[in-house]
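Page 47, continued from p. 46.
Same chain as before, 180 aa.
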Amino acid sequence: MHGAVKSPVGRRATRALFVLAFLIYVADLVTKVLAVRFIDPADPVSIVGDTVTLTLVRNPGAAFSMATGMTWLLTIVAIGVVIGVIKIGRTLQSRWWALGLGLVLGGALGNLTDRLFRSPGPLQGHVVDFVSVGWWPVFNVADSAIVCGAILLVALTVFGIEPNGSRSTKSDTTGKESRQ
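Result:
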């Protein structure tokens, strides 16, 4: 879209992406600060019996504590995700893609902030996780946003909805696309 004037739908979609990302980021940051301040790692807070608890964990790895020795690589990947989402976001025409990408961007920024500014140091910081539900690994607001956003983006892709708002179908042999 170099030099092209962006449509009002596109401007609204891009604005929605960044507003949602900001809200997710702030919610993640505030909840992590509160978790660190009020939850004793040795004394989980029961919300619904033993099924839902607030349990403070510092996670050096990715989801499910995978790649715990590669925190620096996870930081670089998160930076790449942020750059990629911002680049795609500037060309958006689909509100649904804006929603999915906004969730992913806000979550990626939340966990990236931990990796950059929490101990043990820059590019190696441990992510603060604090929500424990049943057998599921402990997570945070950013993790939830990333997972929900990723699921939405996969669904949009499966149903043929493109970031530019067009819809492609497998039965469409003429190459024409309809606008969403």
